[in-house]
């Protein structure tokens, strides 16, 4: 059985699962989770609130990953998909958890992230960034160069024209490559 941990963006922490951005529109949280469930995987999609501690939440998910592996789940059958702030949490998990699990980072590479964190990521990583994203649309090259612990680290630039809102819906531009990552066998 495949397992997916979906870590949503910050707007859900603030507004809940029916969040709407004046700039990017509705965050289709339920549609995203449903599209991930359609892969046949067991989807872990805990809704964080504004009171959720970034580091404690990351440690909690890392522990859940370790528990799945201890029960016999292959690391390659676990994929963490993080969107925006959720992607930053995924990067934190990847820094601390040495298991070769899969990570899909959506709109998580920004000047803030580079200046604030000193992570060396583990696992198989796919960083997806949107050409028109002015919030966190930087290339992941900085993290690729820094992450000597990563088993593999690829990046994909997409061009939907949706800015940071590309991660607000189950958009094929990120969902199809994420599905390929979920299917990985190594």
Provide a quick synopsis of the model.
This protein has seven helices and eight strands, in the order βαββαβαβαβαβαβα. By secondary structure, the protein is α/β, with parallel strands linked by helices.
Textual characterization of the structure:
The protein has 186 residues and is α/β, with parallel strands linked by helices. The longest helix is centred in the middle third of the chain and has 17 residues, at 54-70. The protein has helices at residues 10-15, 29-37, 54-70, 85-96, 111-116, 141-146, 172-183; strands at residues 3-7, 20-21, 25-26, 42-44, 78-83, 102-106, 123-130, 150-158. The protein starts with a strand and ends with a helix. It is globular, with a radius of gyration of 15 Å. Helix 3 (54-70) crosses helix 4 (85-96).
The main sheet comes to: 6 strands, parallel
The proportion of residues forming helix, as a percent range, comes to: 25-40%
Q: Average pLDDT across residues? A: 97
E-strand count: 8
Cα-to-Cα separation, first versus last residue: 15 Å
Sketch the topology as an H/E string, one letter per element: EHEEHEHEHEHEHEH
SS-based class: alpha/beta
Task: Give the amount of beta strand, in percent.
Answer: 15-25%
* CA gyration radius, whole angstroms: 15 Å
Q: Helical stretch count?
A: 7
Model regions low in confidence, pLDDT < 50 over at least 5 residues: none
Biggest sheet, strands in spatial order? 4-1-5-6-7-8
Question: What is the molecular shape?
Answer: globular
